[in-house]
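Input:
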Amino acid sequence: MNMEQHIESHIIQSSDDEFIINVGPQHPSTHGVLHLQLKLDGEKIVDLRPFLGYIHRGIEKMSESLTYKQFIYLTSRMDYLSAHINNQACCLVIEKGLQTEVPERAKVIRTLMAELTRLASHQLWWGSTGLDMGAVSPFFYAFREREMILEIFEETCGSRLTMNYCVPGGVMNDIHPDFVRKVKQLIKQFRENIHEYDELLTGNPIFQSRTQGIGYLSKEDAIALSCSGPVARASGISCDVRKKNPYDAYDRVSFDEIIATEGDCFARYRVRLEEMKQSMNIIEQLIDNIPTGEYRTKIKGIIKLPVGEYYQRVETARGELGVYLVSDGSNKPYRIKFRTPNFSNLGALKPMSLGGKIGDLVAIMASLDLIIPDIDR
Amino acid sequence: MNDIFGPLWAPYVGYILVGLVIITLVVVMAVISIYLERKIAAFMQMRLGPMRVGKWGTLQAFADVFKLMLKESLTPAQADKQLFHIAPYLVLTVSFLAFAPIAFSPTLQLWDMNIGVLYITSISSVGVIGILMAGWSSNNKYSLLGAMRSGAQIVSYELSAGIAILTIVMMSGSLSVSGIIQSQADGWWIFKGHIPAIIAFVIFAIASTAELNRAPFDLAEAEQELTAGFHTEYSGMQFAMFFLAEYTNMFIVSMLGTTLFLGGWMPLHIANWETFNHLMDKIPPFLWFFGKVFISLFMIIWFRWTFPRLRIDQLLKLEWKYLLPIGMVNLVIGAIVTWLGWIF
Amino acid sequence: MSQPVEEAIKKIFPELTLTSWAQFPAIEISRDSLLSACEKLTTHPDLRFDMLVCLTAVDRTPRLEVLYHLRSTTHGHELIVKTELDESQLEIPSVVSFWKAAELFELEVYDMFGITFTGHSDLRRLFMPDDWDGYPLRKSYKASEVADNYLKSHQLLIN
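Output:
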């Protein structure tokens, strides 16, 4: 089949009053290379078909030819805004397989980094939501605090976005001496500035009229589509992995799981804003009590997991990430499957947008907070 | 002039010179407003804006226009060539034409026609044709969608803007620009006309922002949704013309608002404060005029960088269900107030 | 918490042996009884597996294993369902009618392993181009060879 036939096979059959528009793959508002084919009747969306694969790099296949220590670095590139949490999931799975004990200090450091990552990710999401709705200024305000977080990462981990800080057994290096002071400064500044977030977008009547009542996802649909993260929690499902299956230091901090019931874009927006505040609570509880001790358990020699299957799930900024690892006893994984949250959340796009308008589609995509490399892997 | 060119040619040369002056003035004002927009936006977003080209980035707009002039103007293969080329010229010409009756000071007015205000609103309406032409002739689904949205928006909001203008025209009793300004010699309409004038001012502000296709009503250019709307396919000088026309229209709307509601070139007088009034009179009228225009310009720019965007149906609902009925009721109230003489 | 689910499974599927996959209980079902088993798994009040967390496959040549990871939001328990397919007959009924999430998961398994899901409304390749040769996550797939052939056949290689 040549290129023309390839394209032709993708054109949805349409009658004369409907026309087909391709949204993406290069498009400022799809948060990545997502190609959606919309069938429109006037302004109303009648059908929606996602086309993926533009950033498929074969992470699962590549992992089968890399050693256990090496494939972790590929996972930073899946959901790059929760890069640390992806790495954490892989390390946890390997530690489960080897049954190594991770020192307390490492657990707390990993949790702190995870919450900082979540905060940074939600800040970027907030800024780009404003940008998608047409309000340009919130973007800059969101990045003001995010810059501080990225600088903290750079000092300790060496890199701003893809940290590769977690290793099986703990973390790669101890935290920078300035870490505690800077994180406290960040929390103080963020708490002072968070009212700006509410003033700029949450309370704005234009923003509210564009998000309230739009993109409704019922609880049954959310369960049937295996949605997770803020998308599911805004439809009333209690599914926070940090509460249900705590890992690392989450069993010793107290925080609320934010659940809303309206299931529309505004509910998802509010859930994420509240999650930012909860992240700050967790950081505050841990930052003063980082246990002393080792930051890493040295794992001697080449890592070889015993034959069998292993599973670990974590809560990334977007939902539940599951790592399924099948080992055949060698030094490379036999099969790795990453069950990414964005893959299932993408399924929710169609029921939410059918019958709505294109402007609503933008609001829905902003509230779903999809990261396409996470879907394609 | 007669001596140099002889009596037959002199008037025509005069007209041409005046036309050139106006074009220069418009271009200079557009460039200033582009610079203002970028700087104000930057300060609102905690950054500096253009700083390198010229002192504090003042020559940035010239650099941009120069770059656009050097760019290749591409015409899409399937586009309707004549319409595609005419559209930007139409939109720009209409903007220039609207400058004719505006009074910058008591002595600086190009053409004091007796239907000045009506002329401005009618000429601005012709601009819609240019936009629709641009969208249709581009042979591009997105441009067409953008142009139709734009057209619907402009045509709807013209009604509200027109009714707001009508309120003031009725209260001052004159359609000519100089007549309206003269009627504000004892106080600007926004103070004199109290409630009907203030409501008319608010409606005029909202409706004009919508007519300019600026945020929060900038659906037609919503980059996040439909690339650049009706001017997606334009590049180079033709794009520069659309760009220039938008800022010129911003100026016209500010000037119209200033003339109608803020007293034009009339200084601010507060009754019985003689020394204050003397001081106010010392400031030359054209400074008064441009000062007020720049304040309105600032408000329009402020709106753009603060608010998110409205959806097309919310935009049209705002017009037909809220602005238009309120405008009409206000018109009736204004009529009653004028008839009963309840003006300050 | 998994004690009740293991007992419930033993009661409802007495013919199956309960094994484990990672930390979850697992049952193995044949391809032909898959749909009736899913019926019971979703509707029986003691089970109520309403969420399909993941649907994936593992290539254990000469067989391919299809894994269904199920969860119940009401009871909180989880289960892994395994189905083994022989290399020569890579067909399995689709479970889209039970869990809508299966729509995307099955597309990925079809793309990566070549397993056809009968009853799926829109089976197409998800990540790879439509005319790609081979199924990437199979052990027999040689990535560089297929890529080179594809580029050559589409005249995309720069010589």
